């Protein structure tokens, strides 16, 4: 008898768990000169995620630390059905990991009420000790990934080999596409749907996490 694979969700944060992209929201709110071109270059893949995010936050003075953190935490809106998805995963024995290109100073406090263990939240770090905000990169790319991701989602996923794990990706942007190519199941919205369509990667569209729960329930029943 073949042993059932362990099911694992790798869920993006910005624009997925939250309705908005928190990094772009922060930069747009404080509006330092030159940020829009950096965002455009990252989306168009002319600049790596790590390089672009680092450059954007370096535009912000650390003197605004409290304002930056307060704005990020207080303006994030959680996508409908997220708490229910967490409960569903616990009930069904699906391991849930947050794989985020976001930053610790807003990712951890926003997720605090959902009781997700810290060792299951992967994100970038921050350093406010100098004159400008510096982003730190505790989860860099490891071979074979050479995309300079910053927080490398495929590196995290490869710790869970496909022989024993069914890998489920939930995401919304080009930053999730490499992860989607490794996944057994992909739930996509926004830019990620366009990337998947263009390169023929199968996916299930979603708008709320109730859509994800419904699709996962169908898989459990079948």
Can you tell me about this structure?
It catalyses: 2-hydroxy-5-methylsulfanyl-3-oxopent-1-enyl phosphate + H2O = 1,2-dihydroxy-5-(methylsulfanyl)pent-1-en-3-one + phosphate. With 222 residues, this protein is an alpha/beta fold. It has a single domain, classed as HAD superfamily/HAD-like (Rossmann fold, 3-Layer(aba) Sandwich). It contains ten helices and seven strands. Strands 4-3-2-1-5-6-7 form a seven-stranded mixed sheet, sandwiched between helices. Helix 2 packs antiparallel against helix 3 and helix 5 runs parallel beside helix 10. It is globular, with a radius of gyration of 17 Å. The relative contact order is 0.17.
Gross geometry: globular
Largest sheet: 7 strands, mixed
Number of helices: 10
Distance between the termini: 18 Å
CATH architecture: 3-Layer(aba) Sandwich
Topology (SSEs and partners):
Elements (H helix, E strand, L loop, with lengths): L5 E6 L10 H9 L4 H9 L5 H10 L6 H10 L7 H11 L2 E9 H8 L9 E7 L6 E3 L16 H5 L7 E7 L5 H6 L2 E4 L2 H9 L4 E2 L3 H13 L1
Parallel strand pairs: 1-2, 1-5, 2-3, 5-6, 6-7
Antiparallel strand pairs: 3-4
Helix pairs in contact: 2-3, 5-10
Key traits:
222 residues; alpha/beta; 7-stranded mixed beta sheet; 10 helices; 41% helix; amino-acid biosynthesis
Task: Provide a quick synopsis of the model.
The protein is built from ten helices and seven strands.
């Amino acid at each position: 008898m073949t042993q059932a694979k362990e099911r694992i969700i790798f869920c993006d944060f910005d624009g997925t768990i939250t309705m908005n992209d928190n990094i772009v929201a922060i930069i747009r709110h404080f509006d330092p000169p030159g940020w829009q071109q950096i965002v455009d270059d990252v989306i168009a893949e002319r600049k790596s995620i790590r390089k672009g995010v680092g450059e954007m936050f370096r535009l912000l003075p650390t003197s605004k630390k409290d304002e930056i953190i307060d704005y990020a935490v207080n303006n994030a809106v959680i996508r409908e059905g997220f708490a229910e998805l967490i409960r569903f995963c616990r009930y069904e024995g699906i391991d849930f990991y947050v794989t985020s290109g976001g930053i610790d100073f807003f990712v951890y406090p926003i997720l605090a009420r959902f009781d997700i263990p810290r060792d299951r939240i992967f994100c970038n770090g921050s350093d406010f000790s100098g004159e400008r905000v510096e982003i730190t990169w505790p989860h860099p790319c490891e071979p074979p990934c050479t995309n300079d991701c910053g927080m490398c989602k495929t590196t995290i996923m490869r710790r869970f080999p496909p022989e024993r794990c069914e890998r489920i990706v939930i995401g919304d942007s080009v930053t999730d596409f490499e992860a989607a190519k490794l996944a057994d199941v992909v739930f996509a919205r926004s830019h990620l749907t366009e990337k998947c369509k263009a390169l023929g990667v199968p996916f299930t569209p979603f708008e709320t996490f109730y859509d994800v729960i419904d699709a996962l329930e169908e898989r459990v029943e079948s």
